[in-house]
Amino acid sequence: MRLPRLLDLRRLEARIVAMFLGLLLVVQLISFGLIGSSIERNAEASISAELETGERVYRRLLVQEAEKRNDAARVLAADYGFIETIGNGEGQQDVPTLTDALKNHGDRIGATVVVYADREQRLVAATRPQVEGFAKLIAPLTRKMRCRGGSEAIQGPNIVLVGGQPYQVVAVPVCTPAPNGSVLMAFELDSATLKDLKQLSRLDAAVVNNGPDWHVLVSSRPQLIDNELAPQLRADGTLFALKLGGEQLRGRYVSLVRASGDEVGVLLLRSFDEAIAPYRQLQWKLLGLTGVGVALFVLLSLPFARRITEPLKLLAESAKRLGRGDYDTPIEPKSTDEVGALATAFEAMRTDIRAREEQVRRLAFWDPLTGLPNREQFSQRLSQQLNASGRCAVLMLDLDRFKHVNDVLGHAFGDQLLCSVSERLSRLSAASSSLLARLGGDEFVLLLEGADEMAAIQAARRILKDFEQPLHIEDQTVDIGAGIGIALSPEHGIEVSTLLSRAELAMYSAKRRQCGSMVYEAALDAGSQESLSLLGELRHAVEANELRLYLQPKIDLNSGAVVSAEALVRWDHPQRGLVPPMAFIPFAEQTGFIRQLTAWVLAESAKVLQSARLRGLDLRISANLSTRDLLDQDLPVKVEQLLSRYSVAPEFLCLEITESAIMDDPQRALQTLERLHEMGFRLSIDDFGTGYSSLAYLKRLPVDELKIDKSFVMAMEREIDDAKIVRSTIELAHNLGLSVVAEGVETGKAWKLLAGLGCDEGQGYFISRPMPVEQFFEWLPRWQAPDLSGERLDTMFSELN
Ligand code: C2E
Ligand code: CA
Ligand code: CA
């Protein structure tokens, strides 16, 4: 599994650095902006103050200028030569000389116009023509002046407009010593005052005509362009921004004089750029510092981010390892912080997962009871072996009568028995290259790698030989029998499921035939080609009269009288000779042919009963029914018809049914059994003890008889536990009102023991082997119950009780 991008730690590192860097930059930008705007506000305020001061300074300079010029005018008015030229003011005056004197004085102090007017304010002489405009000013300027009493102080800058031009004017009386006219001097406004202003205050200034004919009159700043300047001008006395030739400036316009629609004023200018230049420099320095700070921050925060991400990276790697299923590498916390705590949690998770994983593996691949590998592990190992195309043998083993040991001696005992069996099998298979597993219940399986048929059969024999030794558990001795089925690869299959099912088939067959072990053969398998030809042969056998009916007598264990006989089929095969039923009955059951076979047996049995009656014998016949017969709904009718054909009463026919046949489909089997019971047939449970039904269940079945399986009966003499099973079965059957038949009576001792335990009937080689019908009728009159008084059972009974 790919871990999500979240754990792309390079990115995380970058993100941590970027986030802090971003924060730093935002703070820096905000403070940079704040500083910038406060610089501008401060600059604006101080420029405004400067411009205000500038205005005052300029006015002051103009007043000083006026005072100076006033003094100069006084000097002229007091000049001896000048007074002489005027005379006493009476008679003709020498105007040219007067004009010269005015000119001389005027030139000396830079006056633009000098005018002399007589006592009556009449113009006498002037330094240039057309000076009426100036002459008119004399009266208002000199009105309060006296010749005695000192000079009057100058009141203001005395700026006037004459012919649209601004002038600074001063006027003084001429005293000879009596007042004798006045002198007026007018000065054009020049750049000298503006330059003084600039020296004092760093302000540029321009005197402008702010009338309809707007233009700059004089200025301390070169290259002032009227058209550029005029539109930017704002109201009197206010601060405003303007731009000249790419330079940012602040201006303040002050009106100096206004007359008949014309106005002249001064425009004070301060370069904004210049004013904030030192601050800007500071700001740039600050910016530089910020840059250095950011660079330092990046350098320092990288290792810091790495300190955060490094342990995370280790954790991410650990998580990947866990994801891959590596639970063995421990995760050590590298620190005591949150990441360390996370690592500790990871470590706890790792150990927990590992423990659980082990448990799951144990449960998934091991049998908890015996500690042996289970079916899953076995299948995997077998699959590996088959993939490696190695030859191998599968031995499947199923214990005999385990169900009953379990029922009678308890589940705890059954578990111990399974453990002991598994120990024995483990010991036996330890040497060979093999795997032993428990498939479930009392089923074990052994894989022999590289084994051929011979080796497999020998292994099975070794196991069966070993099983002849009884087991000792909790002071009890248990006889263990087993059926072993063998399937070989590649002969019988190259797939796990095929091999297992074929070994199982062989195993069941071995159990049915009670031959210990059996190698799989196709005849066991109803679907195989060989089976199909066998089916053909079997059909032919019925038509060609190759089937033979054998009878095995059943005796009353108390009287020794023959009360009945079991009908057993044989196949007289032209090539193979007498074929035992176990070689074809299971096959006939699988293919359904058993119905014909049963019909044949029942018909033969009916004939036997008929001839027995004719001979005056009160004999019953037991015939075997299989699962398929029980599922046949028409069976009761068919049987009835058969018997009536030979005029035999139903009570003479006993039908033997195995537990497993009933358990296949208990519902339907029960229906058939009930019909048969109602019709008066005797019903018997065959092979009791080998199946899985309980006595409690049997209670519900309409049966009359119970046949204890021969494996218990035959082992009974040697094994006390088998004897116990037989005893309790007899007791329980009697409690349920059933009569009990023991099959497999091979000795007189067994007979005597069974009789002692209250068993009703017996059947076995000790009495007679199954024999052909004619032979049976010959044997019957000759039969005499043997004398069993010599058989000693004392120890057996004392052990049982
Ligand atoms: P089964 O019904 O349990 O029959 C008893 C079997 O035990 C018979 O084997 C019999 O020969 C054998 N037997 C009897 N006494 C002794 C003894 O003292 N010691 C030993 N070792 N064996 C003894 P058989 O005849 O080979 O039949 C085997 C099985 O085949 C039968 O078991 C029965 O299940 C089936 N079978 C036989 N004939 C028929 C038939 O006509 N129809 C059906 N459906 N099944 C049949
Ligand atoms: Ca039987
Ligand atoms: Ca039987």
What report would you give on this structure?
With about 800 residues, the chain is of the alpha+beta class. It contains 26 helices and 27 strands. The strands form five sheets. It has an eight-stranded mixed beta barrel with strand order 18-19-21-22-23-24-25-26, surrounded by five helices. Strands 2-1-5-4-3 form a five-stranded antiparallel beta sheet, sandwiched between helices. A five-stranded antiparallel beta sheet has the order 7-6-10-9-8. Ligand C2E binds near residues 581, 764, 765 and 770. One calcium ion binds near residues 566, 624, 656 and 686.
Observed structural traits:
single chain; 801 residues; alpha+beta; five-stranded antiparallel β-sheet; rod-shaped; binds ligand C2E
Q: Helix content range of the residues, please?
A: 40-55%
Number of helices: 26
Biggest sheet details:
8 strands, mixed, barrel
- Classification by helices and strands: alpha+beta
What portion of residues belong to β-strands?
A: 15-25%
- Ligands bound to this protein structure: ligand C2E, calcium ion
- Radius of gyration, in angstroms, nearest whole number: 70 Å
Euclidean distance between termini CA atoms:
69 Å
Outline, from the CA principal axes? rod-shaped
The neighbouring-strand order within the major sheet is 18-19-21-22-23-24-25-26
> Uncertain spans, ≥5 residues at pLDDT below 50?
none
Number of strands: 27
* Mean pLDDT reading: 87
